[in-house]
């Protein structure tokens, strides 16, 4: 039997007691440094062909492949939750070696943009600009002699971005990591009267293992090779600043770091170095990990979600793209 001898109060003469501000929820809320608001969240949507299609992605519970009609319903429901921004990815039936569906005015993304802008006014529509969902080999660009050819790919990305703008997109978001694509897209948009369309560039996009579930969702896994020749080495942070600097010089309005949670240091450095609107993409694998652990009863999902998204915001992100957008909006309402 141990006897605990309590010290007298007077012997601990503290001038600061940091626990004072943690004693009740109103007290904690009063001094909370990081606040989340529904305005900062962007909901990604995977738009496929057909009608009345709502197919759940096995590795991403709560995320679906949606035909245009279903995507519109999802956008309206998200609006009900307080989410007004969506990022569209396309899943065309037709794929070829040049990714021509990326700029087909009748492809899922272009149709979805037009329909959403009409059916759910006030929605901010962003579109992902890349070729990986549109090429039969699953690469982000034109493949010549087993290499992703930078400049011919940029030509195709420009066509895709212009067709999204023509459909009514507010923001185009190139995610391909080719050199010079932001400047080329900016020039092409301006020449065609789309100078009001903003560019959110995936400026520091890493070669990450955490895009796995997305590739199931977008049916965009490369048939051979990988994306290391254009996506960034996860070991590099100074290089991320060069990527961001270049995209800003070429006319990017918002710069993105991707993935988010594994690159919080990069988010902070980008925000502190440039002071531009900075986005972070909480990617499919980061979402899937939480979902999987929650399904096993290993973590408290609502708390883990808030903690995760708070961390991304605390690191400096102004805009957060996340599959949890609707859930977090409801949670903080
Ligand atoms: C490319 C693109 C990818 C993601 C967004 N845009 C996949 C890739 O680079 O392989 C990943 C998003 C996620 O994992 O949630 N169009």
Describe this structure in words.
- The protein has 333 residues and is an alpha/beta fold.
- The protein has a single domain (35-332), classed as Aldolase class I (TIM Barrel), CATH 3.20.20.70.
- 38% of the residues lie in helices and 19% in strands.
- The chain has 11 helices and 12 strands.
- An 8-stranded parallel β-barrel has the order 1-4-5-8-9-10-11-12, surrounded by 9 helices.
- Helix 2 (68-81) crosses helix 3 (108-119) and helix 7 (238-250) crosses helix 8.
- The protein starts with 24 loop residues before the first helix and ends with a helix.
- It binds ligand PBG.
- Ligand PBG is lined by residues 128, 130, 132, 175, 211, 214-215, 227, 283-284.
Give a nutshell description of this structure:
The protein has 333 residues and is α/β, with parallel strands linked by helices. It contains eleven helices and twelve strands.
Q: Biggest sheet, in brief?
A: 8 strands, parallel, barrel
What order do the SSEs take from the amino end to the carboxyl end, as H and E?
HEEEHEHEEEHEHEHHEHEHHEH
Structural class by secondary-structure content: alpha/beta
Q: What are the distinct ligands in this entry?
A: ligand PBG
By CATH, the topology is TIM Barrel
Report mean pLDDT, rounded to a whole number.
95
What fraction of the residues are assigned to beta strands by DSSP? 15-25%
Q: Count every helix, treating DSSP H or I runs of 4 or more residues as helices.
A: 11
- Number of separate strands: 12
Architecture, CATH level 2? Alpha-Beta Barrel
- Relative helix content: 25-40%
* Distance between the ends: 51 Å
Q: Any idea how many domains? A: 1
> Unreliable segments (pLDDT under 50, ≥5 consecutive)?
none
């Amino acid at each position: 039997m141990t006897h605990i001898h309590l010290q007298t109060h007077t012997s601990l003469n503290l001038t600061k007691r940091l626990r004072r501000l943690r004693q009740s929820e109103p007290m904690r809320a009063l001094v909370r440094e990081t606040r989340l608001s529904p305005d900062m969240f962007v909901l990604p949507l995977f738009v496929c062909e057909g009608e009345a299609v709502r197919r759940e992605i096995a590795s991403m519970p709560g995320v679906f492949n949606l035909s245009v009609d279903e995507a519109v319903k999802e956008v309206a429901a998200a609006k009900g939750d307080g989410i007004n921004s969506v990022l569209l990815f396309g899943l065309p039936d037709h794929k070829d070696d040049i990714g021509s569906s990326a700029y087909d005015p009748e492809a899922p993304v272009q149709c979805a943009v037009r329909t959403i802008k009409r059916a759910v006014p006030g929605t901010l529509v962003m579109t992902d600009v890349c070729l990986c969902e549109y090429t039969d080999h699953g690469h982000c660009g034109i493949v010549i002699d087993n290499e992703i050819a930078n400049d011919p790919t940029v030509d195709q990305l420009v066509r895709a971005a212009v067709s999204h703008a023509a459909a009514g997109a507010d923001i185009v978001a190139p995610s391909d990591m080719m050199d010079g694509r932001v400047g080329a897209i900016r020039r092409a948009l301006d020449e065609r009267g789309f100078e009001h369309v903003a560019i959110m560039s995936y400026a520091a996009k890493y070669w990450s293992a955490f895009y796995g579930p997305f590739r199931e969702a977008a049916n965009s896994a490369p048939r051979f090779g990988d994306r290391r020749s254009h996506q960034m080495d996860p070991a590099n942070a100074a290089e991320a600043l060069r990527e961001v600097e270049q995209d800003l010089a070429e006319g990017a309005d918002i710069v993105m770091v991707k993935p988010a949670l594994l690159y919080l240091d990069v988010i902070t450095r980008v925000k502190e170095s440039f002071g531009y609107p900075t986005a972070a993409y909480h990617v499919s694998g980061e979402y899937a990990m939480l979902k999987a652990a929650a399904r096993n009863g290993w973590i408290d999902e609502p708390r883990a979600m808030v903690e995760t998204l708070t961390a991304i915001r605390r690191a400096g992100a102004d805009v957060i793209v996340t599959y949890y957008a609707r859930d977090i909006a409801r949670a903080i309402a």
